[in-house]
Specification:
By secondary structure, the chain is α+β, with helices and mostly antiparallel strands. Helices cover 29% and strands 31% of the residues. The protein has one domain: ph1033 like fold, CATH 3.10.590. The chain has six helices and seven strands. The protein has a seven-stranded mixed beta sheet with strand order 2-3-6-5-4-1-7, with helices on both faces. A hairpin with a 2-residue loop joins strand 4 and strand 5 (87-99). This is ASCH domain-containing protein.
């Protein structure tokens, strides 16, 4: 059983399509009990989302299937640093975690040539921020010039450093 809050750093504001996804599911909460979302959720998904977000709305982000193993170790309450433009643009606390291709397609209507997101997670709490990478780089164990390319699930030591260093 895990007792430590994990931190995941996830690039999420790079390409124009990704910025549109941000606008669709982070800037504005999604009403997941309404079409087209409701029809794509399994009964277990609906139950998990309703338990975590009883008002029927949540902010969502996700990852492609190449990150399945990392997302399998993520849990409710873990922290996600959503990055872009050399800044942590938002901090979120994980709510429900789903593996649902149809729901991901309904959320983001990806270009068929792009990778399809299969992992979707809701955020129980979400804070817009503008924290420069230099603030993370200054923490013990981080390297100046690391632009956090690709999803990164931090180990317990680095997670603790980030949580304390950012006052979370």
């Amino acid at each position: 059983m895990r007792t430590m809050t994990r931190v995941m750093i996830q690039p999420s504001y790079g390409k124009p399509a990704t910025r549109r996804h941000w606008a669709d599911t982070l800037d504005t909460p999604v009403q997941f009990r309404e079409p087209p979302y409701l029809d794509t959720l399994t009964p277990d998904d609906r139950a998990a989302l309703s338990e975590t977000h009883p008002d029927g709305q949540a902010r969502f982000w996700g990852a492609t299937d190449k990150h399945d193993k990392r997302l399998d170790t993520l849990g409710p309450g873990d922290v996600v640093l959503l990055t872009g433009q050399r800044h942590v643009r938002a901090i979120g606390w994980v709510g429900a975690i789903l593996r649902n291709h149809a729901f991901a397609r309904a959320l983001w209507t990806p270009d068929p040539r792009d990778c399809l997101w299969s992992n979707v997670y809701s955020l129980q709490e979400y804070r817009a921020t503008w924290i420069p990478y230099e603030r993370i780089w200054a923490l013990p164990g981080f390297t100046p010039g690391d632009y956090f390319m690709g999803l990164r699930l931090l180990d317990e030591v680095k997670s603790g450093v980030v949580l304390r260093g950012l006052g979370l």
